[in-house]
Amino acid sequence: GYADYFADLRTIVIDEWHELMGSKRGVMMELALSRLKTISPHLRIWGISATIGNMEQSMQILLGNFFTEQKIKVVKANISKQVEIVSIFPDEVERMPWSGHLGIQLLDKVIPIVKQSNSTLIFTNTRSFAEIWYQKMLDAAPELSGVIAMHHGSISKELRDWVEDQLHAGKLKAVVCTSSLDLGVDFRPVEMVIQVGSPKGVARFLQRAGRSGHQPGAVSKIYFLPTNSLELTEGAALREAMHRNIVEDRLPYLRSFDVLIQYLITLAVSDGFRQEEILQEVRSTVSYASITDDEWNWLLSFITTGGEALTAYNEYRKVVVEQGVFKVENKRIAFKHRLSIGAIVGDSLLYVKYVSGKFLGTIEEYFISSLKIGDVFWFAGQSLELVRIKEMEAQVRKSKKKTGKVPSWQGGRMPLSSQLSEMIRVKIDEAATGMESDAEMKFLQPLMHLQRDRSHLPKKNEFLVEYFHTNEGYHVLMYPFEGRAVHEGMAALVAYRMAQIQPITFSIAMNDYGFELLSDQEIPIYEAIETNVLGVDDLLKDIQASINSTEMAKRKFRDIAAISGLIFKGLPGQKIKERHLQSSSQLFFNVFHEYETHNLLLQQAFEEVMDFQLEEARLRKALDRIAHQKIIITEPEKPTPFAFPIMVDRTRERLTSERLEDRIRKMRIEFE
């Protein structure tokens, strides 16, 4: 068997470990290594990683018991890479910034950079952005036709390979790409990198910068192109983070029982396993070090009988025990399992349809899962009420209500990292105290002055709340500068807590810098702040009451069900429709929810929602920070430069694109 085959294995090298570590594939790696260490006692494990904040922890996770037994060596390159960050400025500062439109207007500043360099990579954050940039560049400079190309995940593999080969050969002037070119692609000819819009994180930005000047001693130069003038703050913040050597941590997945169940069945499909030996190995990993005997016994019972809830069904009795050895004897079960090994599960799109059946479009599942039945949201320029979610369809009817949630689209939901958020707060503080030294912040002075005149510029010990009335209604804006994911949780939380003071409904909108609550009645903001709507007390209880955490957990559970082998995704070429997977995983979820609440896979679904979707730990930290800040409430007569982009984002969903441009122009004239 495999034990003999690997007995003489000497070395395993894992490249780009930082990428694996923040995913369930990293957990699979930990388990595989725990097995190989036993089989081959002389094994050496190498991990190669870019810089990450929690380097120590990442070594611990890769090496497991080798780390605790101090059998480690660290090799660090002591050359600090020279990175030069250059922001591209518009001709004049917009005092009322809004996201999305500036980027393309700076096209005429990008073309000369492309023409002067041998080759340039242009990174955008989303696929749709990449498509737009590629088209617009060809329109603006037709002579580039044939020497610029596009590279992103939805393009066929042949085409992507062709683009990479052409780049290698130095035949392309420019490639517009998404994160699909982030990793480990070593293109010597690339001279220049341009990042369009916020990279959302320091590590990501430096990784992209490192694509240019890919030789020792060469300076990496990266241009930062803001999509609205306020985003220039991020250029300054990225530079600050680089000087301070601050990069993000990668959050590891701990106690992912779906991956462990899959691994145990994989062992059972091959030569079988003895449980005491494997338990010892599993506990040597960081991910499962804390597994209790009860949990272990639950897992063994789950793979042999299907656990309490499924014990009546033969197909879930996958593993049999013979003389202490756990193994899979049924050929069909083994065959299906081999096809399902892995931990990558894509996010699905839901169809939005009227109850009558008319199809409106697709929407990302994560957005719909946060709504409750009866909630109103804006989609395709219409106000819609959610009637039911049936398998992979969101059924809706038209609504008369004017307030509703706005879906955030376009991968634009990559939230700002907390490290970058912190540097942005540093830069805003410098502007507030007149200490700005970066070119970006000096350029933004007119915008910052307008913010100060109309409302206030928050220093680092202050937290700004704005309250004003326009013909749309009453607006409350808060600016934690913590990134979209945290703001989503915080906005829902504050709205829920305010509704406890008096019955009131809100439209919620947010971006990376703050969030808005809009209502058609007066908002009791002073009372709310006094009753501590931003407090940490009862946080978990209130989060769960304010969003539909069961529906979110249901969605997470589908991935967990697929990885743990509860549902089978189908044979190659005859994939089972998402709908069926969804209905069967929901069935399991409901059964466990009702009859087996201590089911480890069920608990895992709720934990993943809290840790990864709502970033509960980070939300708690942000609220702690606010608790120690001085809360400043202003009542500006008109919307402020900080408020404007958030209000525009909300408007965007209600209007078609042509009308949007007009509407924003009017808004700007009205509020300038």
Topology:
Blueprint: H1 2-5, E1 11-14, H2 17-21, H3 24-39, E2 44-47, H4 55-63, H5 65-68, E3 83-87, H6 102-105, H7 107-116, E4 120-123, H8 127-140, E5 148-151, H9 157-168, E6 174-177, E7 192-196, H10 202-209, E8 220-225, H11 232-243, H12 257-269, E9 273-274, H13 275-283, H14 293-305, H15 307-310, E10 320-322, E11 325-327, H16 331-340, E12 349-354, E13 359-364, H17 365-368, E14 376-379, E15 382-390, E16 393-398, H18 418-432, H19 439-443, H20 445-454, E17 462-470, E18 473-478, H21 484-501, E19 507-510, E20 515-519, H22 525-530, H23 539-546, H24 549-563, E21 570-571, E22 574-575, H25 578-595, H26 600-613, H27 616-627, E23 630-634, H28 644-652, H29 657-671
Parallel strand pairs: 1-2, 3-8, 4-6, 4-7, 5-6, 7-8, 12-16, 17-23
Antiparallel strand pairs: 9-11, 10-11, 12-13, 14-15, 15-16, 17-18, 18-20, 19-20, 21-22
Helix pairs in contact: 11-18, 12-24, 21-23, 21-27, 24-25, 24-26
